[in-house]
Design a protein that fits this description.
Layout (H helix, E strand, L loop, with lengths): L2 H15 L4 E9 L5 E2 L2 E8 L7 E21 L5 E15 L4 E16 L3 E18 L13 E15 L4 E22 L5 H26 L1
Antiparallel strand pairs: 1-9, 2-9, 3-8, 4-7, 4-9, 5-6, 5-8
Length: 222
């Protein structure tokens, strides 16, 4: 058997026993933050992907927080008055290189509310909504999320309020965030690695090939 024929046989034996690449997923928890009045910035550490595990295919980050919006009216006049109020909140996720990874917004309060004459600090509305950010990280940022450490993720919650009311009416607003936490998920392909038994079978196959080649060489001399 010629040398190149033997090499060809070895290649076939090796490819026959190689394990196929497999898809895998790793999910890490993002920490929670305590109840806080907006506007606020909460920096959370995001676990990086260890490239020794395989080839990174995608990164998904999900985060949610309950947002509570409250409004009060004060009426300095003797007669009842009405005021039109609005309160909107927005949650944004970014990383410390400045890239924005996602945002979510909601209207917490919207409508017309009454204030009795000569009333002070009367609560007229309180609404709770959940803001959820889900972001697929662009592949251009994969290197930023690759390593054996962490990446700082900044969660910023802001609120915008507005009151349209007649003379004598004042409105006060308060918006709070109650952290629920989230996850960062890495989808990757595991590199094909032969198992120990595969090496044994490959060596046995090489032995058979070598024996056949030696026997053929003897037959040629006879």
């Amino acid at each position: 058997m010629k040398l190149k024929s033997l090499a060809f046989a070895v290649g076939i034996a090796a490819s026959a026993f190689a394990l196929p690449a497999m898809a895998a997923v790793q999910t890490y928890t993002i920490g929670t933050f305590a109840q806080s009045v907006v506007d606020f910035n909460s920096v959370q550490t995001l676990q990086q992907f260890d490239s020794s595990l395989g080839t990174l295919n995608s990164i998904t980050i999900s985060y949610a927080t309950d947002v509570v919006g409250t409004a009060w009216l004060t009426n300095s006049k003797a007669s009842n008055k009405q005021a039109t109020l609005s309160l909107d909140a927005a949650l944004q996720l970014s990383v410390n290189n400045g890239a924005v990874l996602g945002s979510s917004a909601a209207s917490l309060i919207s409508g017309t509310y009454s204030a009795a004459g000569k009333s002070t600090g009367v609560q007229v509305a309180e609404v709770t909504k959940t803001l959820t950010v889900t972001s697929s990280v662009d592949s251009s940022l994969f290197s930023y999320f690759t390593g054996t450490g962490t990446v700082d993720g900044k969660f910023a919650l802001s609120a915008v309020s507005n009151a349209e009311s007649p003379s004598g009416i004042t409105a006060d607003f308060l918006t709070k965030a109650q952290g629920l936490g989230g996850t960062i998920t890495y989808d990757y392909t595991v590199a094909a690695v032969p198992e120990p038994e595969t090496y044994g079978m490959l060596l046995l196959g090489l032995g058979v090939v070598a024996f056949a080649a030696k026997r053929k060489a003897r037959s040629a001399k006879a």
